[in-house]
Write a structure and sequence with these properties.
Helix content: 40-55%
Radius of gyration: 21 Å
Order of helices and strands: HEHEEHHE
CATH topology of the largest domain: Alpha-Beta Plaits
Largest sheet: 4 strands, antiparallel
Strand content: 15-25%
Shape: extended
CATH class of the largest domain: Alpha Beta
Number of domains: 2
Number of strands: 4
């Protein structure tokens, strides 16, 4: 049986570590969100654009957004989607897509949740410090297509 060289041993160890890390990451991922399409029911959407001043500001925002998104997923059954995306043309531009069963699910439930009340002042502080400009619009689905 041939023995491995030191270089081959290091490469095998690194590859094994990468595979182990990926496997553990897959096992620790949150379960996929349940299907949220409801026959005949049209969601209310909020689309929020965030334009940051620096990459550090983006990172700071994502650090406060991640626990917020986790809490929304766990505690708001009428929030059908809640995700952030980065522009592929401007790394300082993010877009939050929020999808609710009804406008009331946003106004009366989401905005009253403890995790929202903890998150929103942090985002407001970033706005006040001119680290981010926030704009947004709301929409009602027309029932054509799918998300």
């Amino acid at each position: 049986m041939a023995s491995l060289t030191a270089r081959e041993l290091v490469l095998c160890t690194l590859l094994g570590g990468v595979l182990l890390n990926w496997t553990v990451g897959q096992l620790m991922r949150a379960p996929e969100a349940p299907a949220t399409r409801r026959l005949g029911q049209r969601a209310w959407l909020l689309v929020v654009r965030l334009q940051f001043k620096s990459k550090a500001d983006v990172a700071a925002f994502l650090a406060i957004f991640a626990p917020m998104a986790d809490a929304v997923s766990s505690h708001e059954p009428d929030t059908w989607g809640y995700t952030v995306s980065r522009s592929d043309q401007d790394s300082l531009a993010l877009m939050i897509f929020e999808r609710y069963a009804t406008k009331d699910a946003y106004l009366s439930v989401h905005k009253a949740m403890k995790h929202f009340m903890k998150f929103r002042p942090k985002l407001q502080a970033m706005q006040d410090a001119k680290q981010v400009e926030v704009t947004g619009e709301s929409f009602t689905e027309l029932g054509v297509g799918f998300m």
